[in-house]
């Protein structure tokens, strides 16, 4: 009898340890999957080219709009930009997380406090040009209010103009998306252009499903490159959140399954 009990206990122990190992492996693999996206963002000339392209388009559109005397609108001209992966490059933090293999909890705050993010290609030159034209610049980010000093310090350190308390608008407690802050700017300014790496940086895209987001892009297709300037970010964003139905508390196993579920193959 004792041998049977011992055998049963040993079997359950093996099953438990196998499960723990599998879970740990899944967690590490989930981080490993971001290796290529981070590597592309950091090293691909195509990524640099797309940033230059976006800001070049922004400059051409700004010239075009400002050359018209804007007689019909007495509001001050303004542009609205996201901060992270639009102006500042946080990919070193993403790379660190990949290398850590999820052994350390993901923590934006630790990285933000360092204020070491470098500017993305073309960003500062464009911002300084917009500033020279007398355009007001608003930085609307979903960083938290507690991170405002660090955001301003980092923006100022890379030469971003108008990076001050009045122009850096961060997420308010309980706020979903950026629409409230965009409307706040729109009450006193004519928003000429919006820049971001996430569809949520523009109106009409918050909390949509995967298919709904793509349908919305199709509806607004005439605005991309005209009023909406979109940058590439394969590392994170609402595109991933939509796959999880915006429930980031799902287990790594559930996330891994959903990632594969949304893949389209030829078979």
Summarize the structure.
This protein has 267 residues and is of the alpha/beta class. It has helices at residues 2-32, 35-43, 45-67, 91-100, 108-114, 123-132, 148-157, 179-186, 210-219, 238-243, 252-261, and strands spanning 76-81, 88-89, 118-119, 136-144, 168-171, 189-196, 228-230.
Descriptive overview:
It is a single chain. The protein has helices at about 1-30, 35-45, 45-65, 90-100, 110-115, 125-130, 150-155, 180-185, 210-220, 240-245, 250-260; strands at about 75-80, 90, 120, 135-145, 170, 190-195, 230. With about 270 residues, the chain is an alpha/beta fold. The chain has a five-stranded parallel β-sheet with strand order 5-4-1-6-7, sandwiched between helices. Strands 2-3 form a two-stranded antiparallel sheet. Strand 4 (about 135-145), helix 7 and strand 5 (about 170) form a beta-alpha-beta unit. About 25% of the residues are buried.
């Amino acid at each position: 009898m004792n041998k049977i009990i011992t055998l049963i206990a040993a079997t359950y122990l093996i099953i438990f340890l196998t499960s723990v190992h599998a879970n740990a492996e899944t967690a590490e693999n989930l981080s490993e999957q971001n290796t290529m996206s981070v590597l592309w963002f950091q090293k691909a000339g195509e990524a640099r080219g797309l940033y230059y392209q976006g800001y070049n388009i922004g400059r051409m559109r700004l010239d075009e709009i400002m050359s018209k005397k804007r007689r019909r609108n007495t509001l001050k001209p303004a542009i609205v930009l996201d901060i992270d992966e639009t102006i500042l490059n946080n990919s070193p933090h993403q790379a660190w997380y990949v290398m850590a293999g999820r052994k350390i909890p993901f923590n934006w705050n630790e990285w933000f406090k360092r204020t070491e993010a470098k500017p993305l290609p073309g960003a500062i030159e464009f911002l300084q040009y917009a500033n020279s034209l007398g355009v007001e610049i608003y930085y609307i980010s979903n960083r938290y209010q507690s991170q405002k000093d660090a955001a301003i310090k980092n923006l100022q350190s890379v030469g971003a103009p108008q990076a001050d308390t009045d122009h850096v608008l961060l997420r308010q407690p309980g706020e979903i998306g950026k629409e409230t802050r965009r409307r706040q700017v729109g009450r006193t300014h004519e928003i000429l252009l919006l820049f971001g790496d996430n569809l949520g940086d523009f109106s009409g895209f918050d909390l949509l499903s995967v298919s709904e987001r793509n349908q919305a892009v199709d509806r607004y297709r005439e605005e991309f490159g005209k009023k909406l300037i979109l940058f590439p970010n394969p590392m994170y964003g609402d595109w991933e959140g939509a796959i999880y139905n915006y429930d980031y508390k799902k287990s790594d196993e559930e996330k891994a399954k959903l990632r594969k579920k949304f893949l389209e193959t030829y078979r």
